[in-house]
Amino acid sequence: MTASIASPAFLGLAVLTAVLLAALGGRVRSGVFLVLNLMFLGGVLLGPSRLLPLLGFVLAGYWLAQSAPRLPRWGYLLALSGYIAVFVYLRDYRFLHALLPEALLTSGVFAMVGLSFVFFKVVHVVIEARSGTLGELRLLSYLNYCLNFTVYTMGPIQRFQEFEAQWTGREQVAPPTFEAHLDAVLRVLIGLSKAYVLGGLLLPHALTASPDLLSIPVRELLLRITAFYFYLYLNFSGYCDVVIGLGVLLGVRPPENFDRPFLARNIADFWQRFHRSLTNWLTNYVFSPAYKWALGRRVLGRHPLLAMNAALLLTMVVSGLWHGTTASFLLFGLAHGLFFVVFRTWESVALRRLGRAGLRELRARPLARAAGVAMTFSSVALSLVFFQLDAATAFAVLGRVFGLS
Amino acid sequence: MKRILFKLAAAALLLLILLTLSRTRIDFVYQGF
Question: What is the C-alpha separation between A209 and A221, in angstroms, rounded?
């Protein structure tokens, strides 16, 4: 059961929600929003049989967030690890099939749409609750934050504090003018056009798991890979435009997720421009703690570049595994981890040789900028074969691209 | 006023493009996650 962002069920309910939320106030407004969220998730997107386990997963996160500040360190880490293990089990990661008997596996029954996004939102709430930076955590707000149907399926991943500030009116998402509302409607229409018109035009030319991949000319293969990169951007950023526009109408605006990623000059720049809300999450909860931990070790602490590269590699592996459950997503993450390692190592060597001013001067040169953009574009585009194909086919395709087979 | 009329026209044009040129079936890549 799915409901696209262009479906009458989704758009109709979004308009109804915007009208109701504008007319109501206080706890009634929160209650009505929760009912509408549950109606969409249980009635349209997931079905009642999947809504219940989802609610259990989300409520367990609430309990964890409430308990986190009081638990001893070992208890907190154990509970958080347990929650992560439940997610891995529910999402039915492939490696579990090698470890557990078939009878114990879920076979993907609970691997529902949006689970990864909800998981990252809950973990964010738990970690911030533990560190004392979350503020007040009310059940109604928490449920609406996790189950907000407009961003449930694919984000962007908003911070709870920002959601709460916008929901309670402490932070205004747009001026209460006709033009601001018109801008929001335009944003929705632009997003739908990107996803359904431009994306639709590119789709027939984009890389898919078709049987002719190993026989078509390499030039055609490269075109399909490039087309898939553009298609992915139009598909995901178009969706984000729609939900950000709707967010303005609803009064809770999710964060921007894209900033012209094709202009990225290096891999770090790319991840600041593509799926930014995911990058922010990974930076806060994987990279920063991992880097800090590594710097505190005896060996890694003496080699900050090594510590940074280890933390970057781990972060990108987590990113890959968040994206998908198979080996090819792990390889996607590893590829981006390696891009980061190469980039940060090059940067460190260049800094040592040229000095800060020399590196700045080099980066400002038009040729160096163009080379950076071209290298980043091709590296990212090629890494997407792991996104779209199984590991064996992806390697075969890359082998053809690099003239190895 | 001119700006708002321009935006209204742009919205109408986009709506027309959407109604005539959009593909009815698009799968969202990130929906699998």
Answer: 12
pTM reported for the whole predicted model: 0.95
Contact A196 B8 (CB under 8 A): no
Would you state the structure tokens that stand for residue A144, as one six-digit string? Answer: 């609406």
Q: Which of A10, A75, A78 lies closest to A45, judged by CA? A: A10
Q: Which residue of B has its CA nearest to A387?
A: B29
As for the ipTM of the complex, it is 0.94
Rounded-to-integer distance, Cα A306 and Cα A299, Å: 9
Query: Which among B22, B26, B30 has the least Cβ separation from residue A154?
Result: B30
- Per residue in A162-199, pLDDT (tens digit) is 999 999 999 999 998 999 999 999 999 999 999 999 99
- Chain A residue numbers with beta carbons less than 8 Å from the beta carbon of B3 are 179
Phi first, then psi, for residue A101 (nearest 5°) are -65, 150
Which positions in chain A touch B8 (Cβ < 8 Å)? 182
Which of the four pLDDT bands, split at 50, 70 and 90, describes residue A156? very high
* Residue showing tokens 């026989």: A215
A185-189, A227-231, B22-26: least confidently modelled range? B22-26
Return the number of CB contacts < 8 Å for A and B.
79
Beta bridge partners of A274: A258
What tokens were used for A369?
């900028």
- Nearest-CB residue to B31 (from A153, A190, A197): A153
Measure CB to CB from residue B14 to each of A189, A199, A323 and give the nearest one: A189
Name which of A232, A272, A194 is nearest A385 in CA terms: A232
DSSP symbols for A148-170: -TTTTTT-----HHHHHHHHTTS
